[in-house]
Design brief:
By secondary structure, the chain is mostly helical. It contains ten helices and no strands.
Length: 201
């Protein structure tokens, strides 16, 4: 998560984290469907309006790092040094995301998500949004020279790499396996070969 610099920003971030932590604790203790927004707000000692100023929906409380992950994927494209290969930069971010989502204590959260149609639907819409944002960043980089269609395809492959690896017995190895295929797909989208993708080991 990006560390806020100003006092006001730090206070806002702390309030947001408190709400998210409180919500997750209640959801895991009592079940996602059994806990209402008002209960989360009361337990976190904030107004309901304050909760909604940080989170647009109840589902968003479970995916509190959604925006941060989306921004990190975009920055993997936009903040690269000149001529820095793209694919290894994206692989690095997906590795970090998978490590976060498979860390100790994450299993009960994913069981809760898998058991809730609303949360599964939210996660799917979140992944599609991340893919579209990443695609726009790739297509918008003139140095990468990819069409909008190619950019969208690669972006979806990258986001799917996370989903597949999270469920694999060896998530780290799964990321590398999928990214070897992404590397090949990336090279195939350039008619004259490719020197800007890089090689995923």
């Amino acid at each position: 998560m990006t560390v806020p610099t100003g006092r006001r920003e730090r206070k806002k971030a702390a309030t947001r984290q408190k709400i998210a932590d409180t919500a997750l604790r209640l959801f895991l203790e009592r079940g996602y469907d059994a806990v209402g927004i008002r209960e989360v707000a009361a337990e976190a000692d904030v107004a309901v309006t304050t909760l909604f100023s940080h989170f647009a929906s109840k589902e968003a409380l479970v995916f509190e790092q959604d925006e941060d992950f989306e921004q990190r994927l975009t920055r993997a494209v936009t903040d690269r040094a000149p001529h820095e290969p793209l694919i290894p930069a994206l692989r690095h971010e997906i590795h970090a995301l998978v490590r976060h989502c498979t860390a100790d204590g994450a299993a009960p959260i994913w069981r809760m998500i898998d058991e809730s149609p609303a949360l599964r639907e939210y996660e799917e819409s979140m992944r599609l949004r991340h893919a579209e944002t990443l695609a726009a960043a790739i297509a918008g980089d003139p140095g990468l020279s990819r069409t909008a269609t190619a950019s969208r395809a690669i972006a979806r492959f990258v986001i799917d790499a996370y989903a597949l690896a999270r469920e694999a017995a060896d998530p780290e190895a799964a990321v590398d396996e999928v990214f070897r295929m992404i590397e090949a797909a990336w090279a195939a989208t350039h008619p004259c070969g490719d020197s800007t993708g890089g090689t995923a080991p």
